[in-house]
């Protein structure tokens, strides 16, 4: 870096700078538990005088620094961690400093655009094929439901939990109990799903709607959906749709289990029956009015 810059610059001149010493101390404090802060304080106190001078070797010897090192010999030289090298580059070149600032701003813009793109993709995927699924439930499950008329809307949530079990290994209720902090903010398992998982969920909605039309039992449907979800996720892992779009949160998932028909019925029912009765009543009023089912109504 020194050779690339016109003029006589020496690392010892850079080390004489009070701001340099404070920067090095801050870096060592963050990354080096064995940094000798007492010796640094002595060096810092001596800096600023006309006679003050310190070499890299002296700095390392006195402070036990690990961020910068110097070696003599044919293949020797002074080397530093990139965090420190950037600081040195900005000291010898205002233009280099400006490039660093511009590059930081560019990367932050890309990061922001990526997060917005992920939000848009998730919003679309969460709705794709949703109406196909609810339409199949309305036409083929609701008429056969043994629940009271005022509670038949529960069937929608039970089928949604069947998909949750197949893909995430837990019902909405189980996830809320495992993630109480997120549940308090009205977030659910699908809010933390990856792009691949939401893509699979969209496919499962179509698959399940077709099986519902064919009157396949809940136990059989669960086994088929579980196998399909596992196979699809395995294949999608090999495809990086958007490198920058990743799962953003590691909220608790519950390991998938093989469940019998009775267990499925119990889980999907219990996940709903503990909800507010008034909310269910409001939901059924909307259902009778011919409005589309919205998961937010479960609240």
TrEMBL record:
Task: Identify the residues that the record assigns to the KilA-N domain, covering every copy.
Answer: 1-107
Q: InterPro entries, per this entry?
A: KilA/APSES_HTH (IPR018004), KilA_N (IPR017880)
Family matches, as PROSITE patterns: KILA_N
Name any one Pfam family assigned in the record.
KilA-N
- Superkingdom of the source species: Bacteria
UniProt name for this protein: KilA-N domain-containing protein
List the source organism: Mariniflexile gromovii
């Amino acid at each position: 870096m020194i050779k690339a810059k016109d003029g006589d610059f020496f690392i010892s001149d850079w080390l004489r700078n009070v701001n340099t010493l404070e920067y090095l101390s801050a870096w060592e404090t963050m990354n080096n538990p064995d940094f000798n802060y007492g010796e640094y304080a002595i060096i810092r106190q001596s800096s600023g005088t006309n006679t003050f001078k310190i070499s890299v070797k002296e700095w390392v010897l006195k402070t036990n620094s690990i961020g910068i090192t110097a070696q003599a010999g044919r293949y020797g030289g002074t080397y530093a961690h990139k965090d420190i090298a950037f600081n040195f580059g900005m000291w010898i070149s205002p233009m280099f400093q400006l490039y660093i600032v511009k590059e930081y701003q560019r990367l932050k813009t890309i990061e922001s655009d990526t997060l917005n793109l992920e939000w848009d993709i998730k919003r679309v995927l969460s709705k794709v094929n949703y109406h196909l699924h609810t339409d199949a439930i309305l036409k083929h499950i609701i008429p056969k439901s043994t629940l009271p008329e005022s509670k038949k809307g529960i069937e929608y949530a039970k089928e949604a939990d069947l998909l949750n079990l197949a893909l995430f290994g837990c019902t909405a209720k189980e996830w809320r109990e495992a993630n109480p902090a997120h549940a308090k903010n009205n977030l659910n398992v699908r809010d933390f799903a990856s792009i691949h998982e939401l893509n699979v969920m969209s496919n499962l909605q179509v698959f399940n709607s077709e099986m519902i039309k064919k009157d396949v039992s809940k136990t059989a449907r669960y086994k088929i959906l579980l196998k399909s979800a596992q196979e699809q996720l395995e294949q999608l892992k090999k495809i990086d749709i958007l490198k920058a779009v990743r799962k953003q949160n590691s909220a608790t998932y519950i390991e998938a289990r093989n469940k019998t028909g009775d267990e499925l019925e119990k889980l999907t029912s219990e996940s709903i029956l503990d909800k507010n009765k008034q909310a269910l009543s409001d939901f059924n009023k909307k259902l009778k009015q011919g409005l589309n089912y919205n998961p937010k109504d479960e609240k």
